Amino acid sequence: MLLGEDFELLDLNGDGEVDLVELETILGIGIGDLVLGCDTFLDGGQFMEPVETDAEGFVYLDILRESDGIGLDAFLYAEHTVQNPTGAAILVGFPGTDGEALIDLGDGVSPIELTLSTEALLLLGEYRGFGLYVQVNSDAHPEGEIRGQLNCF
Fold it and tell me: What is the pTM (predicted TM-score) of this model?
């Protein structure tokens, strides 16, 4: 919380209050800007029992403010080198655990580019404190070939 002289500098419209619009202006956060970002590196070493594979990849998940300034949009982008992928998903679980699939990411063919639904976004928010990871399955490893815990900032 900013006090004293800083408060006067933050009160851009002179109404005696610092509101969200003023803070957004000062911080440079506006419509369409990043609200939350997550990323991870994918490999076979992040399973409870590591998977022997040369495959690897990465995931970016960005949550942005919608143009109406109220809602949110979530975009997921992933690339990987898994041969013959059979599916991908966001699962709920901490490192060292096997989790349950939360959001289906489709057939797993790289690159994966998705706009997540409002329902998916709500699930991410609900389970964020329980750990979330992305996993890609393949013909050779139907229980998962590569995975990575999402790190959000």
Answer: 0.75
CA atoms within 13 A on the CB side of 6: 5
Per the structure block, which two tokens stand in for 22? 């003023």
Q: What is the pLDDT of residues 53-80, one digit of tens each?
A: 999 999 999 887 776 666 677 889 999 9
Give me 67's structure tokens: 């143009």
Picking from 54-63, 64-73, 101-110, 123-132, which range would have the lowest pLDDT averaged per residue?
Answer: 64-73
Omega prior to 111 cis, within 30 of 0: yes
Rounded Cα–Cα distance for residues 71 and 88 (Å): 26
| Cα–Cα separations (whole angstroms), residue 23 to 37, 46, 57, 109, 141 | 20, 40, 37, 41, 49
Residue 45 phi, psi (nearest 5) = -85, 0
What is the pLDDT at residue 103? 94
CB atoms near residue 57 (< 10 Å): 23
The C-alpha atoms of residue 135 and residue 125 are separated, in whole angstroms, by 19
Strand ranges for 82-126 from DSSP E = 85-92, 100-104, 112-116
